[in-house]
Prior knowledge:
single chain; alpha/beta; Rossmann fold; 5-stranded parallel β-sheet; globular; binds guanosine-5'-monophosphate
Amino acid sequence: MTSDSKRGALVVISGPSGAGKTSICNELLxxxxxxxxxxxxxxxxxxxxxxxxxxxxxISAAEFERLRAAGELLESAEYLGNLYGTPRRPVEEALARGxxxxxxxxxxxxxxxxxxxxxxxxxxxLPPTMETLKARLAGRHTETAALQAKRxxxxxxxxxxxxxxxxxxxxxxNDILEDSVNEVLRxxxxxxx
Length: 193
Ligand code: 5GP
């Protein structure tokens, strides 16, 4: 076995809030045997159903700044007034073990990962229509109406940035979850051989 065959893969999933990124990531984690979720740090308040350490590590702004200053974050961004970042070490260690790391980050973070890790597989998830996006955001009942509106207002800019930046070689339209998951699996296979 060559050392190359043990190399892992970094899969970056981005897209507007409500596009269905989390559902896609959960299915990828279920279906790819040696995959792991990159647990981000965030200063966003924890939602009722969220468990600290699972989707996110919920930390203070001071702790976030400490991590960023110490070079412990692979990338970081501010989204609607909250800070989000990817702890660097767990990603590097998992990749060194040959695992497939899956992360869900915004487009600013995606741009940073594209520069630092050009071999990463970056996929942007689009909603079938903006109406669908609105309906999905409203249907999940995790944000207030005001916050849903803010997230929706971000969507156009995120999509425009993803298209113009060139950092996302792959765009998928998430209409039927099963099809989207199969498409991302096909992309990963294509890229990792
Ligand atoms: P949410 O508050 O809905 O969990 O996430 C808001 C946005 O932040 C989403 O676009 C999500 O992909 C993004 N996000 C989550 N974790 C990270 C991270 O570690 N880094 C960056 N740059 N964005 C993140």
